[in-house]
Design brief:
Chain lengths: 184, 237
Amino acid sequence: MPDKADDVRLIERVADGDAEALGELYDRYGRVAFGVLYRMLPGPEAAEEVAQDAFHAVWRQARSYRADRGSVRTWLLAICRNAAIDWRRTRGKRSEREVTIDAAAELLSDARVEERVVSAMRAERVRAVVRELPDEQRQVLALAFWGGYSQSEIAARTNTPLGTVKSRVRLAMNKLRERLEEER
Amino acid sequence: MSVERHPTEDLPAYALGALDESERETIAAHVEGCAQCTRDLAQFEDALYEAAAVGAVDVQPPRDLRTRIVLRHRGARSPAAPSWTARIAGVLLRPVPLAVPAVLALLLVVSFAIVGTNRQQIDTYERTLAGVADGRVVALAPTSANPDARASVVIPKQGQPYLVVRLPTPPSGKTWEAWVLKPGPKAVPAGTSTAGDVFVLPLTAPLGAGDGVAITLEPSAGSPQPTTQPVLLVDRT
């Protein structure tokens, strides 16, 4: 797995205008970033297009990265996810703009994990923590994360009271954070 | 919202991006000035995106995606130092001005043709590259006029380098011509092809370490120097 300090140095080089550093960042996280986009978008062509836009955003925003606000991996994947949500809202065909409830309903896919990003042992631990979440909590996380839905949209689409959705989000996120943070 | 009243209830949903816009703005303003919430938010997001990294589909990105991302930004590093891209552009900007409108029209025709490229061609191209047994594969970047064009230089451990190309059949009387870009102002002709779809183009000129490669559309007999803008280009192999 990449060293976090190395990641920060890479971002600093990107901020200084070093395109090769952007390439090295791609070597570390390009595959998982593409995997996130592939899951959120209707096909490989859209994932390819948005990946280029996302790495361009990384290039433009590198100076704004702050290590105290999370890891480089988190920052980069958040940029990718936001770019995918923007693409769906503005450029996707009508039929592509929405991820169906069924498609987004699981937080995890069955695919093996990219070990350069998360070690196999750690990935198993993450899977275990996610599986421990009650189904309804896992579903709201998946709908919000992969589908890009807000809590009120999830409430409307699943015919669930908004207060219940909020409660599920809060409980699930707190559990994820506690369980994964305590084992870092 | 004061710094003392932390948005503990909504911070998890904020990290998840599941708040409505007005709620988001309120939390963002608080987090900006609150070290504790900044730390809590970082932990929520790190946990969430770690789960996302595990939950993402494991799929191989296109082989030339990295090259395109790097090439797009390489020119921004140091405008004072002319890049290979600038050099080849310098060579190509010399053609007779009267020829330019015809060239542009031709490039437009090519662009429309490429936009029609079907999925089968893409698969054939990817499969051909995936079948390369040894050596290095370096992708050429498509230029803005032909964003769907694809080509990669295959540099085998033994034998002559060659190009795997995905381009439409050139118009009548025209050919695709490959160029090796060595230090200096001139490009070296490296082979022509009138094939279309996915095809292999052996490089007939020696390819040295760090040389660039480009493909242009030329008259059917080939040209001693490029007369049109490249459709595909890599400044260093």
